[in-house]
Amino acid sequence: MTTKNIRVLKVVVFLLCLLPLGKLGLELFGLAGMSLGANPIEELIHRLGKWGLNFVLITLAVTPLRKWTGLNWLIRFRRMLGLFAFFYVLMHFLTYAGLDQHFDIPVIIEDIVERPYITIGISALLLLLPLAVTSTKGMMRRLGKHWQKLHRLVYVIACLGVWHFYWQVKKDILEPSIYIFILVVLLGYRILARWRRKRAARTSLDWTSG
After folding, report:
1. Which residue range forms the structural domain that includes residue 88?
2. Gap between the Cα atoms of 203 and 188, Å rounded
3. Beta-carbon contacts of residue 81 (< 8 Å; ≥ 6 apart)
4. What is the tally of structural domains in the chain?
5. Which residues touch 134 (CB under 8 Å, ≥6 apart)?
6. Chain CA centroid to CA 170, Å
7. For 48-77, what is each residue's pLDDT tens digit?
8. What is the pTM of this model?
9. Neighbours of 168 (CB within 10 A)
């Protein structure tokens, strides 16, 4: 994959990442025969949050896909996907805070304190913030080895996001259960890969010592 092709593909991926937002806009304003239903604000909040979670999981899926397919250039899209995850989660919160609560700060704080699933959701957003701020190459150079440690917070964020979704659903837990399964697969892959690396390192050390 040449640099030119990567640039073209990045534009394509960027536009694809905006498609959910564009579709939501059409539905919100009742254009092209689409609608968000009887409670558009609630549906908008829900859909933005789901897309934020989707992008968190898609970002986590980049490394396994790169390993399984051998397409190393996939790693060059991870930062963009991570930033879109932050964007949609932020829009999810701002829609709740603005359209639903009209930026009534005392009410929002009361919701965060008294409703556990909102507490978990805001925690995920706050953890996403430093990842978004430090996503640039300049910050990678400044932070050095600490950058990778910081960005491991994405695992915590993914768990919080799925947990938030699960608690938010009152009856039908099929969809959040699918998200839980996907998350378990993505995290399980990393745990297994790390265990294999450690095992290989111990085997190599034992062979060298022998």
Report:
1. 3-209
2. 22
3. 13, 17, 55, 58, 59, 62
4. 1
5. 140, 143, 147, 150, 151
6. 23
7. 999 999 999 999 999 999 999 999 999 999
8. 0.92
9. 16
